[in-house]
Design brief:
The structure holds 2 protein chains of 2 kinds. By secondary structure, chain A is mainly alpha-helical. Chain A has 15 helices and no strands. The N and C termini of chain A lie far apart (49 Å). Helices cover 27% and strands 21% of the residues of chain B. Classes of the chains: A mainly alpha, B alpha/beta. The complex binds iron/sulfur cluster (2 copies). The site of one iron/sulfur cluster (SF4) has 16 residues of chain B, from helix 13 and helix 14.
Chain lengths: 391, 441
């Protein structure tokens, strides 16, 4: 009889990468379900939207997993081994991409976005754990830039000079959005665009905060509308020890506060663009009305709970994470003001790219750390910034 | 409840032997007494092949300042001095003694009211070493270079499965406390703390019932007398019983990187060591026996045993009803920091706190996958290192960077590798880096 011979420790926790990914999939299910149901009931005239949503989710999941397997097969990995090592991370990517599509997106958008996300963003960089940016975010941004109109949704665009109502043109590809009519609640401007005044005069915000929270009557991506379901999923992850509740909160709160500040400052300008200091007092109170809508709108909650917190693309220290999530929050609020669309995705994408930098400069202070004596000439490289890890 | 930052609550599996009273290991025929049961130089044999020795007789002498005496665990004949594999898999000089069945015993003269100097000398004579696992010669520890104001007794026993310290506290409370007082006297300190994890409630209460033992509460501390011992209840969290984390929890002092506990005015000794000091001073018995927990899902009849040093593990396994079919791993020591054994053909030493036979269900054999950067390892590391980088740089062969991320400060507690969802062999990486860094120097 021979026994296993290895280095300590000899017992390990039951948690595995696979079990974490399965938990994430489970946590995403309520939002998927809610999204599909909402789309079924959104517009009595088009119950098809629900079926389309479901189709997108399935297509994306299947393509993502298949893309990973085919890639590995091309690398000459035996299929048995691929199955044995399958960690469900590509399924998470697939689900997320599906949730980030609009019901009106063309069917091939999901396929191409999934392949791009899994093969280019993840596998080419070395597979699970090696990707620089979150594959799902990269997939969404890819779809947005590459397909514009076919991607659907947030393509409404306002000509600031003529202030003409709702021109359905993509800001990037210039293509026309086909599909549902301009008055249709579903494909119209997302509430965020109404909020940010980018939807033109044709649409006004008639949604209450409760609507935004439940996703009833809200236009948007399949998975991002029902905040309740997303939060339920988030709580599940927190309970299962997969997610630290602190980070989504930091991100969301920062976005809310910065949005309020922006609304406050911009509210103090009169129509001629002159800053009126007397307005500051009254506008400050008013600006807080933006707080709830700004955090409940758009893909913020989806992004904050499920995409910005991806382990692979977040810093490794507590301080680093604070920096990262506050940075994301500010970036999101500013981008929303400046670009009026896709703010969350671009913010996360940009944030992901900054992570290696954060990790390089913010290190932990080890237990019993003694300040190095000043020996400037000896080895300046060794004196990298050592941040105080929250004791 | 006091504790340190980081760490992880590892399921302790202590119930297997928590209420098993200490049993004596019966005499066996062959004993293999290693000459390197401690940190430092191997002891120098003072007996020859063919000599007759009696239980407690000195058979090998400390060969330098950092070394320890070794005594015969049994009455018998020296068969040979051979190189044998120890639990770590290293070949070490070993004296093979065959018992002759007699029970003669040689002891040192008992000391009544010894001076500190006498205690230290006796500790050295009796070959006492740190019994928590490292095996640092205790006599050397008792003469620190830095000024010391506190003695901390490590009764945390944070390793899962192990119960020998727990049983000792329960069954030999008075002797143990006497040993603690002797240690305190030897160092000349009056601040004595016993750190014990909350999962040993019974032992904690038993300790508090003894005279001049007080709890770690404000009221009790206010009326603390000169020779009162403070029992500090600690959170059950691995690695609570590591020197540095124990000091942090009991005294809130941080041992500097690369420093010894004495650098912050502390000396840490283990429960078993305190008892051995008692035995050596009061009864004149040198250290050739110790308590061991034999446990794990693969052992038919888990026990707490008092075992003579040099007893073959195979004999112990036999006494405990043999191994179950589904045993996949043998471990000498605790499951977190112990050593994996190839077979049971290994003899016990002064530092063996346990022997475990783990089943497939207990000893996870999931293969490592790529790191997903989840940060769990860093969040549990009691040394506040970033194990993922140490592992990464070691894997790619970059020793310099691995050292930069603190590989040399790691004391290999294994908490990081325990929690890692990707099952990265982080401790193995750390060891590799340590070896490579040494080679470079
Ligand atoms: S716990 Fe494992 S997977 Fe997570 S960061 Fe550390 S090494 Fe990587
Ligand atoms: S890096 Fe070392 S000290 Fe830190 S948890 Fe891992 S084994 Fe323990």
């Amino acid at each position: 009889m021979s026994y296993v011979y290895s280095s300590s420790p000899h017992i390990k926790s039951p948690r595995t990468t696979r079990s974490i990914m399965i938990d994430v999939c489970i946590a995403l299910l309520p939002a998927c379900l809610a999204g599909v149901i909402l789309m079924f009931t959104a517009n009595a005239a088009f119950p098809m939207l629900g079926a389309l949503s479901l189709m997108h989710l399935v297509i994306c999941c299947v393509t993502s997993v298949a893309a990973e397997w085919v890639f590995l097969l091309c690398c000459k990995k035996p299929f048995k081994q691929i199955l044995a090592e399958f960690d469900f991370s590509s399924l998470v990517t697939g689900l997320l991409i599906g949730m980030n599509l609009y019901p009106t997106s063309k069917w091939y958008v999901g396929i191409l976005a999934s392949i791009f996300a899994v093969v280019v963003v993840k596998m080419l960089f070395g597979g699970t754990g090696k990707n620089l940016v979150n594959p799902a975010i990269a997939g969404r941004v890819f779809a947005f830039i590459a397909f514009g109109a076919a991607f659907g949704g947030a393509m409404s665009y306002v000509n600031p000079n003529t202030n003409s109502p709702m021109v359905f043109t993509s800001p990037i590809s210039g293509g026309k959005v086909e599909g549902f009519d301009a008055s249709g609640a579903v494909t119209g401007a997302t509430p965020l665009q109404v909020l940010m005044g980018s939807a033109g005069t044709g649409a006004t915000n008639t949604l209450s905060n409760l609507d935004l929270f439940l996703g009833t009557g809200v236009a948007g991506c399949i998975g991002e509308t029902c905040k309740l379901a997303l939060i339920v999923g988030g709580i599940y992850l927190v309970v299962r020890g997969v997610l630290n509740f602190r980070w989504p909160l930091v991100y969301i709160a920062t976005t809310g506060v910065v949005s309020v500040l922006i609304a406050w400052i911009s509210g103090c300008y009169n129509s001629e663009g002159v800053f009126i200091p007397e307005l500051m007092g009254t506008k400050f109170a008013q600006a807080w009305e933006v707080f709830l809508p700004s955090i409940l709108s758009g893909g913020l909650i989806l992004g904050a709970i499920f995409m910005a917190t991806d382990y692979v693309t977040t810093p490794n220290t507590k301080v680093g994470n604070y920096v990262y999530f506050v940075f994301l929050g500010i970036l999101t609020a500013v981008l929303r003001k400046a670009v009026k669309g896709e703010a969350v995705s671009f913010a996360i994408l940009l944030g992901n790219l900054v992570v290696p930098l954060i990790d390089m400069y913010i290190r932990r202070k080890p237990f019993g750390y003694v300040k190095p004596q000043k020996q400037r000439k000896a080895k300046p490289a060794d004196e990298a910034v050592v941040a105080k890890e929250g004791d | 409840m006091k504790t340190f930052k980081g760490g992880f609550h590892v399921p302790d599996h202590k119930d297997l032997t928590a209420s098993a009273a200490i049993e004596q290991m019966p005499l066996v025929t062959d004993y293999y007494v290693s000459l390197s049961q401690h940190i430092g130089k191997p002891a120098q044999p003072v007996v020859n092949v063919g000599d007759q020795v009696v239980e407690g007789q000195l058979i090998a002498q400390a060969s330098s300042a950092i070394s320890a005496n070794v005594h015969s665990p049994v009455c018998g004949d020296v068969v040979e001095v051979v190189k044998r594999k120890n639990a770590q898999g290293v070949l070490v000089d070993t004296i093979h003694i065959r018992s002759n069945g007699r029970q003669d015993r040689q002891t040192l003269p008992a000391l009544t009211d010894p001076t500190p100097q006498q205690i230290v000398e006796r500790v050295a004579e009796a070959g006492i070493v740190g019994m928590g696992g490292a095996g640092f010669p205790t006599a050397v520890k008792l003469q620190p270079k830095d000024p010391v104001d506190s003695l901390v007794i490590n009764a945390a026993e944070c390793e899962p499965y192990l119960n020998c310290d727990n049983r000792l506290l329960l069954e030999r409370t008075e002797q143990f406390l006497q040993g603690v007082r002797l240690l305190a006297k030897a160092i000349g300190v009056s601040n004595v703390y016993i750190g014990i994890e909350e999962n040993k409630q019974q032992a904690y209460e038993k300790l508090l019932q003894q005279p001049h033992v007080i709890a770690d509460t404000k009221e009790a501390l206010a009326s603390k007398q000169q020779d009162d011992i403070v029992v500090v209840q600690l959170k059950a969290k691995y690695p609570q019983g590591a020197e540095k984390t124990l000091i942090k929890a009991c005294l809130n002092r941080e041992v500097p990187v690369g420093g010894l506990p004495a650098a912050v005015g502390c000396i840490v000794d283990n429960v078993g060591t305190a008892y051995a000091v008692y035995d050596a001073v009061v009864n004149g018995v040198p250290l050739y026996k110790r308590l061991m927990t034999v446990s794990g899902g693969g052992i038919n009849d888990p026990k707490n045993l008092e075992v003579a040093v040099g007893t073959p593990i195979s004999a112990i396994v036999e006494l405990c009803g043999g191994l179950k079919e589904d045993t996949v791993k043998l471990v000498s020591g605790g499951p977190m920091m112990g050593f994996s054994l190839m077979n049971t053909d290994v003899a016990t030493t002064k530092t063996d706190s346990g022997f475990l036979a783990l089943t497939d269900k207990e000893a996870s054999s999931v293969l490592p996958t790529p790191c997903i950067n989840c940060g769990r390892c860093a969040s549990v590391c009691p040394m506040r290192l970033m194990p993922m980088y140490i592992d990464f740089y070691t894997t790619v062969g970059d020793t310099e960077n691995a050292v930069k991320y603190g590989a040399l400060n790691c004391f290999e507690c294994g908490t990081c590798a325990y929690v890692c969802p990707a099952k990265r062999p982080i401790v193995q990486s750390v060891r590799l880096t340590k070896i490579k860094a040494k080679e470079k120097k």
